[in-house]
Design brief:
The protein is an alpha/beta fold. The protein has helices at residues 31-43, 62-71, 89-98, 113-120, 125-137, 156-165, 185-188, and strands at residues 3-7, 48-52, 76-81, 103-107, 141-148, 170-175.
Length: 195
Amino acid sequence: MKELDIKIGYNCNNNCLFCLNKDKRGFDHNLLNLKNQIKKSADAGCEKIIISGGEPLIYDSFFEILNFAKFNGIRFCEIQTNGRMLSYDDFVKEIKNIFEDASFLVSFHYPDAEMYKKYSRSDGFRQVLKGLNNLKNHKLKVTTNTVLFKGNYMELPKIVDILDKYGCDSIQFRFIDGRNVFDQFHDFVPKMKES
C-alpha cells in the first residue's frame, strides 16, 4: 500500500527535553503545498496518509487536511500525536466521522504526572490517559511509542501496566536518539550494561 507521510508543522503543546524536532519549532508547512502533495499522491494511487509533526492536532488546518485527504480518495489515516487533544471526546468523534477506522500512534513515555511534567514540561499526563480511553471507547486502533532513556527505562513495567489497562493494541519501544540531546547525552542515554 502506498503511503504519504506529511508534517503539518513542528509546533507542539509539550516541550519535551528530548524532542527530535526541538530545533524546528516555529516551522510550519504551507497548507496549499500540503494539499497539492496529498492530491498528487492520491492521483498516483496512494491509499494511506500519515499525519505527524510536531503535534498535528493543535493546528487549525488539521481537519481541513483530513477532509481534503478523504475527499481525494485516501482510504486510511494514521495520526501520530502526543494524545493530549484526544482527551476531548468531540475531537475524537470528528476524526472518526471523517476516517471511521483511523489509527493512532500515541507517544507515552512516563508512568505518572510528575515524570510527565519533568520531561515534557507540561501538565498533560491526565489528558493523554483520557485520550487513550476515548480512543478505546470509539474502538479505534491505538499503538503507543515509548522512547527509552535514563529517566524512564526502569519504569517500563509500570508503563506497560498502564497501557495494558487502557487496552492499547500494540506498544513500540525506541531507544533515545542521542543526537537530539547531544549537549546532555550522559544525562539521557543509558549505557548498554545499565539497560
